Amino acid sequence: MTRSQIQRKQMPRSPLRVAVLVDTSTTWGRAVVRGINTYRLKHGPWEIFVEARGLEERLRVPPGWRGDGVIARVSNEKMAAELKALGLPVVNVSAIETGDIRFPRVTTDLKASAELAANHFLERGFQHFAYFGLIGLGYVTTHRRVFAEIVTRRGGSFTTLAVRPVAGAEPDWRLDLASLGGWIKGLPKPVAVVCWNASSAREIVFACHETGVLVPEEVAVLSQADDEVLCETSLVPISGISVSGEGIGHRAAELLADLIYGHKPVPDTTLIAPLGIVVRQSTDTLAIKDPVLVKALSFLRQNAARPIRVDEVARHAGVSRRLLERRFTAALQRSPGDEIRRVHLARALRLLVETDLPLVEVAEMSGFGSQAYFSDIFHRQFGQTPLQYRRQNRVAPSRGPGAFGG
Description:
With 406 residues, the protein is an alpha/beta fold. It has helices at 3-10, 27-43, 77-86, 110-122, 138-153, 177-185, 198-211, 228-232, 245-261, 291-302, 310-317, 321-332, 336-354, 359-365, 371-382, 386-393; strands at 16-21, 46-49, 69-72, 90-92, 105-108, 128-134, 157-163, 165-167, 170-171, 191-195, 219-223, 239-242, 269-272, 276-278, 404-405.
């Protein structure tokens, strides 16, 4: 430990001076900054240095800047070396690997993200899946591999296409849309396509439009990370996985404080679960031809906030309970009761993260008969209590329900 670090422990400045080196041009980057600021407001005082920067612009502390620590999206080996040379505590909020230089890392749980994407499409009855990713990025490969394992294990077909990024994790704007469209046209339909980010998803939508392929009727498109600007302004608005940028920022700030003050050991890697899927037009479809199941699943989504019985679903779908159960098992590999619990739990997850509602109200508004029953089902499904899940994933102030879907 250096003398300056010992001095900081003994006589920390007030306020702490912290540099935040993340882009502010994306939904994720701004959310990370909000999470850091939430921690600052609760535990300050902090003096935060942050600048308006694009995703692949060079991020660095100003020459001569004197501070106590850094939270950064460490995107390459050169940046890692520059940060190490500062001799300050650093927390990394990126999954990018930067050679031998490593800092404590807080990032999205990519396996959980891939599972969320797979279930989003499997529950809609898709049997054909594809992944559009980027070459040479280990974390993209991890996400694709887990997604492929899940859908193929469930009997689906899978194919992939990867292109070289022009910089960082962005696809080349000079991408040949005709070639991309040719790949899409050759896929079995209907097909569910997962893209690494909103830029990649936008390219898929463009290519579908150029080649006359319908989105979402023939090709359903999901971005691994939701970016409001890119997703909402696409020719067809794109569904995206809502990454907990605020949770990442808040946890990174907490770990940085531990590093500065030496409160306790800091883990090498902390994974933050995604919040859910923001469902837009690009996946607002069911790859199911059975009109009975279409009616049943639509009824469940529309009534997720109240208790639902299997007999009620069967009546709405116009068939007997026995026939409904056979069709669910044949098409979705789960029972109507399983699907009811899944829909109720998906709503509960949103309420836990997005609101301050007491657990008894979360249970009631998620269709569970009692808080005790809700807590029991939740613990069996996720291995933790609803309160533990809320504490781990929620840092933002209360806000109304969002447009999340399972």
